[in-house]
Design brief:
- The complex is a heterodimer of chains A (about 325) and B (about 150).
- By secondary structure, chain A is α/β, with parallel strands linked by helices.
- Chain A is built from 9 helices and 15 strands.
- In chain A, helix 3 (about 85-95) packs across helix 4 (about 110-120) and helix 5 runs parallel beside helix 9.
- Chain A has helices at about 25-40, 55-65, 85-95, 110-120, 230-240, 250-255, 285-290, 310, 320-335, and strands at about 15, 45-50, 70-75, 100-105, 125-130, 130-135, 140-145, 150-155, 165-170, 185-190, 220-225, 245-250, 275-280, 295-300, 315-320.
- Helix content of chain A is about 30%, strand content about 25%.
- Chain A folds into 2 domains: about 15-185, 3-Layer(aba) Sandwich (Rossmann fold); about 220-335, Rossmann fold (3-Layer(aba) Sandwich).
- Chain B is mainly β.
- Chain B has one domain.
- Chain B contains no helices and 15 strands.
- In chain B, the strands form 3 sheets. Chain B has a 6-stranded mixed sheet, with no helix packed on it. A 5-stranded antiparallel sheet of chain B has the order 4-5-6-7-8, with no helix packed on it. Chain B has a 3-stranded antiparallel sheet with strand order 13-14-15, with no helix packed on it.
- The relative contact order of chain B is 0.23.
- Classes of the chains: A alpha/beta (about 325), B mainly beta (about 150).
- Chains A and B meet through helix 2, helix 3 and strand 10 of A and strand 1 of B.
- Strand 10 of chain A pairs antiparallel with strand 1 (about 5-10) of chain B, so a sheet runs across the interface.
C-alpha cells in the first residue's frame, strides 16, 4: 500500500491529548470542546495530538468528543511521558504543519511540557488560562489569564509568533457529549528519531486520592481563612453533609494544614460549577474566584462588608462565619 | 516534509489495518465478478461484530471461500469458518489459519485486529501479517465514507 498519501492539512487548532487517568481527568475533553469552537470561528479543523505506545482507544474517544483530526504518534518509546522525547516529536510536527493555536491542560504534565515546547518553538505561552476567545478584528487568540498574583485578569495575545500557545485550567470549559457516530481523520506522521530520555521510569504508582468529587458536586460549601481553625471546618462538613454536597477550601486553609490539597479551589486547585455555592470566610480573591465562576447561585458569608466576594455573590451575609454557621446548621436541621 | 500515512477513524469501531485505525477497508473490486476482494465494512454504533465480505483465494489461484456478511456462502476449499461474537477464523482443511479477526472491547467502542495471509486471483500476495495488524500490498481503500451495498 502506498505511503505518503493524501492530505497534509492537519488543522490549525491543536489540542494536546493528555489521556493519563482519562476517565477522571477530563481537561482534554474540555479543551476539545473549546478548541472546536475556536476552530469553527476561524474556519479550520480541530486536531488532537496523541502520543503513546497504543493510544487507539483515546483516538476514538477524542473523535467522539469532537476532534476532526487525530495526529498520532505510536511507538513503544512513547509509552512513558518524557518531556524531552515528547518535545522532540511534537516540535517537529509543529514546524511541519504550522498550527495557529496549540493548547493543553494546565495539569502537572502540561505545566512541564508546554513551557519547554514553547521555548523550543520560540513562541510565547500563557499559563493557567481561564478564558480563550478569538478577537473578531484580528483573528488572534485572546488568552485570559490571572496576573499579578491573581489580583487581575490579563488578556494576552501573540501577534507575531506561532503557534499561539496556552495551558488551560481544568474545569473551566464544558466537554461535549460523546457521539459514537462521528468519523474523523487520523494521520500518522513519521516520528523520526526518538532520543533516549536522560531519566528512566523504574515504576509508577497511582497516587491514591480520597473520593472527593468536587467538580461534579451539586452543592459546594467552601471555607477560607475566616473559618479560623480546623475545628470550625467541621461545621462546613456538617453543612455539606446536610445538603449532600462537598467541601472546598482556599489556599490559606491548605497552607494552615486544616484541609488537604485535594479540596483546594481556584486557579491552582479545582474549578467547580455547582447549583449552589456557599462561601464561608473567603475574601473573594481572584485566584480563588476563577475556580467558582460556573456556580449557578453563590451565597457568601464574610464579616467584611467590603470583601470582593460580595461583588459576585447572589446573596451576602455580613457576619462572622464561625458564629453564623452553627446557627444556620441548627435552623437547617429543624427544617430537614 | 514529513512522511505521513492517513486514514479515517470512527468513534465507535475500527479495524487495525497497515498499523492504522480504519472504520472500513476494501481491497480489490467488490463487484468485479470472480476476482479477489475483501471488504471489512462499517460497523454502526450498537453493533459489536465486524462485517466481513470477500472472495478468498489460495496461493495456487484457486478460490477457497466466498464470505458474505459474515457467512460462508461458497466453500470450494473445504475451509472451516467459525464466528463467535466479535471474533472469527477462516481455516484451511489442515487447520492452518487463513483469516483471523479478534475484536477488542474498549469502554465506549471496539477495535478489530486481523491476521491474514491472502492472495489474489493471480496468485499475488495481497495481505500478510504485520504485528497485530495486517500489511496490505497494492491498492486498498480505507477512505470509504459509507457502507458499500452488496450485489452478489
Amino acid at each position: 500500500m502506498r505511503r505518503t498519501p493524501v492530505n497534509n492539512n492537519a488543522g490549525k487548532v491543536w489540542v494536546f491529548g493528555d489521556y493519563r487517568n482519562y476517565f477522571q481527568n477530563r481537561v482534554t475533553l474540555q479543551l476539545i470542546a473549546k478548541g472546536k469552537e475556536l476552530a469553527e470561528t476561524i474556519g479550520t479543523e480541530l486536531s488532537v495530538v496523541l502520543l503513546g505506545e497504543s493510544p487507539n482507544q483515546y483516538a476514538m474517544e477524542y473523535v467522539a468528543h469532537g476532534a476532526d483530526i487525530i495526529i498520532m504518534g505510536e511507538s513503544r518509546d512513547l509509552k512513558e511521558y518524557h518531556v524531552e522525547t515528547f518535545t522532540e516529536v511534537v516540535s517537529a510536527w509543529v514546524r511541519s504543519y504550522k498550527p495557529d493555536i496549540f493548547i493543553a491542560g494546565a495539569t502537572s504534565f502540561g505545566r512541564e511540557f508546554f513551557p519547554r515546547l514553547a521555548k523550543r518553538l520560540k513562541t510565547g505561552l500563557s499559563a493557567d488560562c481561564v478564558c480563550l476567545d478569538i478577537d473578531p478584528d484580528t483573528g488572534l487568540l485572546i488568552q485570559t489569564t490571572p496576573a499579578w498574583g491573581g489580583e487581575l485578569l490579563a488578556e494576552v495575545v501573540t501577534p507575531f509568533s506561532r503557534p499561539q500557545m496556552a495551558t488551560v485550567h481544568p474545569g473551566i470549559f464544558k466537554e461535549r457529549c460523546h457521539d459514537k457516530s462521528r468519523i474523523g481523520r487520523i494521520i500518522y506522521p513519521d516520528i523520526g528519531h526518538i532520543p533516549q530520555p536522560r531519566e528512566r521510569v523504574l515504576r509508577s504508582k497511582r497516587y491514591q486520592t480520597r473520593d472527593i468529587d468536587l467538580e461534579n458536586a451539586r452543592v459546594v460549601v467552601a471555607g477560607g481563612r475566616g473559618i479560623c481553625s480546623k475545628e470550625n471546618l467541621d461545621h462546613l462538613f456538617e453543612l455539606a453533609g446536610l445538603l449532600e454536597g462537598e467541601v472546598g477550601v482556599t489556599r490559606p486553609v491548605v497552607l494552615a494544614g486544616w484541609a488537604d490539597e485535594e479540596r483546594l479551589l481556584g486557579q491552582t486547585g479545582k474549578s467547580v460549577k455547582p447549583k449552589l455555592f456557599i462561601s464561608c470566610g473567603t475574601s473573594g480573591a481572584l485566584q480563588f474566584t476563577t475556580g467558582i465562576r460556573g456556580s449557578e447561585t453563590l451565597i457568601a458569608i464574610n464579616r467584611d462588608p467590603n470583601a470582593p466576594i460580595f461583588k459576585i455573590a447572589d446573596l451576602g451575609l455580613v457576619g462572622d462565619a464561625t458564629v453564623l454557621l452553627p446557627f444556620i446548621l441548627e435552623k437547617l436541621k429543624k427544617r430537614l | 516534509m514529513l512522511n505521513v500515512k492517513e486514514s479515517r477513524v470512527s468513534a465507535y469501531h475500527n479495524y487495525l489495518i497497515n498499523g492504522m485505525l480504519s472504520p472500513c477497508m476494501l481491497i480489490g473490486e467488490q463487484n468485479g465478478g470472480n476476482g479477489f476482494y475483501l471488504l471489512f465494512d462499517f460497523v454502526s454504533p450498537g453493533g459489536r461484530m465486524p462485517l466481513v465480505n470477500g472472495t478468498i483465494y489460495g496461493p495456487q489461484k484457486d478460490v477457497l471461500a466466498r464470505i458474505k456478511e459474515n457467512e460462508l456462502i461458497e466453500n470450494p476449499g473445504a475451509c472451516s469458518f467459525h464466528f463467535i461474537q466479535g471474533d472469527f477464523a477462516l481455516s484451511a482443511p489442515d487447520n492452518k489459519a487463513i483469516l483471523v479477526a479478534k475484536t477488542h472491547e474498549f469502554t465506549n467502542g471496539y477495535m478489530t485486529t486481523i491476521n491474514a495471509r491472502l492472495y489474489d486471483e493471480k496468485g499475488i500476495l495481497r495481505v500478510e501479517p504485520l504485528g497485530n495488524s495486517i500489511q496490505v500490498h497494492g491498492e486498498a481503500n480505507t477512505a470509504l465514507t459509507r457502507s458499500i451495498p452488496l450485489h452478489t
